[in-house]
Amino acid sequence: RKHLEMERSKIDPLVQLGLLKRINEFKDEETVATTNISMGLEGADNSIQQSLRLDNLIFIANSGDAQAMFSLGIFYSNKKEPGKSQQWLEKSSKTGHIEAMEALGQKYVLGEFGGEPDYQKGSEWLEKAANVGSLEAMRTLGALALAGNLPGNKPSQSLHWFIMAAEKGDAESQTRLGELFYIGDIVKQNLKLGMEWIHKAAAQNYGPAEAA
Predict the structure, then answer these.
(1) Which residues touch 19 (CB under 8 Å, ≥6 apart)?
(2) DSSP for 9-77?
């Protein structure tokens, strides 16, 4: 282990992260010469491999790498450790990492950090993500507004977020927008405009729009 740590210390943390990102580009191929190429540990137990990968990721995250922070936030979320997940996602989000802001906002509105949805904090992070181009955040904000759960917004204001995403070519938002105009329950009914948006989504082979 001491030898491994010494060798790892010779590699720049950002280079290490680059190597970790490339792992998914390759498939392990078992041969006669090697039965385990993960971390260079032949026959190592999976728990040992995971521990070393986690140690490495924490080391890189502590050096200030936003992607590593985000990865740790998702890792701890999957491990059902909301406190650690929140900590790392917030650190990553504060650097402007879009995926981290999306995830943090989603988890707040789903109540994953305190048991109850926090729409205020969730919408704040989602708006930050939406303002730098996150289609997922725009869709979520639209859905929250439509359900009456977006602080300071009426259901009709969901149009703002759906239009923002629809104009960027998001098929799901185009469909939701088309339905709102077609049905006309929270906005003034406009059948022509409703069908135009639905047709745009259908042209992208989006199933719900094709079935509408």
Answers:
(1) none
(2) HTS-HHHHHHHHHHGGGS-----SS-S--GGG-TT--HHHHHHHHHHHHHHHHHTT-HHHHHHHHHHHH
Provide the CA 18 distance to its chain's centre, in angstroms.
Answer: 20
Task: Mark 63-82 as b/e (b = at least 16 C-beta within 10 Å).
Answer: eebbbbbbbbbbbbbeeeeb
Task: Report CA dihedral (13, 17, 22, 27) to the nearest 10 degrees.
Answer: 90
* The residue type at 116: E
Q: Read off the amino acid at residue 15.
A: V
The predicted pLDDT at position 212 comes to 75
Which pair of structure tokens corresponds to residue 136? 């997922």
H helix runs in 147-185, sequence order: 158-166, 171-183
Average confidence score pLDDT of the chain:
84
Q: What is the pTM of this model?
A: 0.72
Do 37 and 28 contact (CB within 8 A), yes or no?
Answer: yes
